[in-house]
Amino acid sequence: MSIQLVTTVAGLHAESARLLTAKQGTSQGLVPTMGALHEGHAALARAAVENNDVVVASIFVNPLQFGDAVDLDRYPRTLEADLALLEEQGVDLAFAPSVEEVYPGGEPLVRVTSGRLGEKWEGASRPGHFDGALTVVAKLLHYGMPAAGLPAGSAGPSGSVPAYRAYFGQKDAQQLALVRRMAADLNFPVEIVGVPTVRADDGLALSSRNRFLSDEERDAALVLSRALRLLEERANAHEPLDLDSALAMVESQPLVELDYFDVVDPRTLEPLAENCRETPFRGEALALIAAKVGPVRLIDNVPLSS
């Protein structure tokens, strides 16, 4: 069956309800994206398709999370290619609304705030970014609820409300942590599923922004994943992480302008300095890095455990 495209919330509700009924489905998955899809998004879609009867993928470039109008305008729009990629993974329904459909009254007067968790790392470098991201994710999670298109008071085809899961990439680790906290703190009836980062053969984390790197800049950007891999190897060997030497590796690359590089608690995102420099690494952590390479801002991370 070919993928269906809808552009309105009403259309999304009607078609997802129809598909759940037709498939006698007991679960629905949502894959929120901003388009310009690549293999990383394909991995999200495959994970959703493997575990749900009906899968919806949204394609929406959210203006609220761009601090720079030029960056918003430059963000690639590749709808036809995106639909082809989603169809290949087995996604049932693509939701590609206009800005007016998502924000019918214009820029919203009330937004979701990311709180203290969103003020550090990416939030410090991009003020307001996570408030904008969480606001649209909250709306998308509401739009994608499997019971939304069913008659009031009714259950799904199986006699119960269908299970609901939403899929996000581990590459955007801080966003994933924030979405999980939002869902828990605000009682969203959805399971948030994190999917591991997908990398190119050379180790660079896949990103829609990689297309803006020159060959020389792309080669320079590899130092980010190499530095993270060095920390991962030391953690696996129960050695001190020696973050300073990994930091020096990144700073030795002249085309890379480092923003931050640290090891943090994966839940609170607070630095774990006492656990990573001189004593053997124990427990769980997350190594985060962000840098500008040429005109492109890149982020990456790797989970650490021992």
What report would you give on this structure?
This protein is of the alpha/beta class. It is 37% helix and 20% strand. The protein contains 10 helices and 9 strands. Strands 1-4-3-2-5-6 form a 6-stranded parallel beta sheet, with helices on both faces. Strands 7-8-9 form a 3-stranded antiparallel beta sheet, covered by helices on one side. Helix 8 (173-185) links the parallel strand 5 (163-169) and strand 6. Helix 9 packs antiparallel against helix 10. The longest helix has 22 residues, at 215-236. The protein starts with a strand and ends with a strand. The model has no long low-confidence stretch (mean pLDDT 92).
Sequence-ordered SSE layout with sheet pairings:
Blueprint: E1 4-6, H1 9-23, E2 27-33, H2 39-51, E3 54-59, H3 69-74, H4 79-89, E4 93-95, H5 99-102, H6 122-125, H7 129-143, E5 163-169, H8 173-185, E6 191-195, H9 215-236, H10 243-251, E7 256-264, E8 284-293, E9 296-305
Parallel strand pairs: 1-4, 2-3, 2-5, 3-4, 5-6
Antiparallel strand pairs: 7-8, 8-9
Average pLDDT confidence is 92
Query: What profile does the largest beta sheet have?
Result: 6 strands, parallel
* Strand and helix order: EHEHEHHEHHHEHEHHEEE
Task: Briefly note the structural class of the backbone.
Answer: alpha/beta
Radius of gyration over all CA atoms, rounded: 20 Å
Q: Unreliable stretches, pLDDT < 50, 5 or more residues?
A: none
Lateral arrangement of strands in the main beta sheet: 1-4-3-2-5-6
Mass-distribution shape: globular
Task: Indicate the proportion of strand residues.
Answer: 15-25%
Distance between the termini: 45 Å
- Using DSSP, what is the number of strands? 9
The proportion of residues forming helix, as a percent range, comes to: 25-40%
